[in-house]
Write a structure and sequence with these properties.
Order of helices and strands: EHEEEHEEHH
Strand order of the largest sheet: 1-2-3
Shape: globular
Structural class: alpha+beta
Number of strands: 6
Strand content: 15-25%
Helix content: 10-25%
Low-confidence stretches: 1-6
Length: about 140
């Protein structure tokens, strides 16, 4: 039996919309982990079908990014939408993933991988300050 979670929606339902970063269901996850929260300024929520996920650009020590969107058709559409946006250089669909920035070196140890993506070792239990919120929405 094939799960409906593994079956892509009907072709007419395929669509990608870019929304404000705070519309992403994982916005707080990324805000708590990014070393440079200012990257959220050029981040976008990529709404696939009904689920908006945050795409965080490269820059400020973050060398690249990626997101698994589940289906190759979505990956191609999302890559097309992100093309030309600041921090999304080299954006491409690779199978079900959308990737941008530098290619991730193979066999990176966990700490080096975290640094490659510009992330703290542990989530920061801090709300965005008024300044950080303003910078993200400038």
């Amino acid at each position: 039996m094939i799960s409906t979670y593994l079956t892509p929606p009907a072709r007419q339902d395929l669509g990608v919309r870019l929304l404000a970063p705070e519309e992403a269901c994982d916005f707080e996850y990324w805000a708590a982990r990014l070393v440079h929260v200012e990257l959220l300024r050029n981040a976008v929520a990529v709404a696939l079908y009904r689920l908006p996920l945050l795409a965080v650009p490269a820059g400020m020590g973050r060398r690249g990014g990626s997101m698994d969107v589940g289906f190759a058709g979505y990956a191609e559409l999302a890559a097309r939408e992100l093309h030309g946006r600041p921090g999304f250089h080299g954006v491409a669909a690779v199978g079900t993933d959308v990737v941008w920035g530098e290619p991730v070196p193979k066999d990176l140890p966990p700490d080096a991988r975290r640094q490659f993506f510009g992330l703290h070792a542990q989530p920061q239990n801090r709300p965005l300050t008024a300044y950080q919120w303003q910078v993200c929405h400038a």
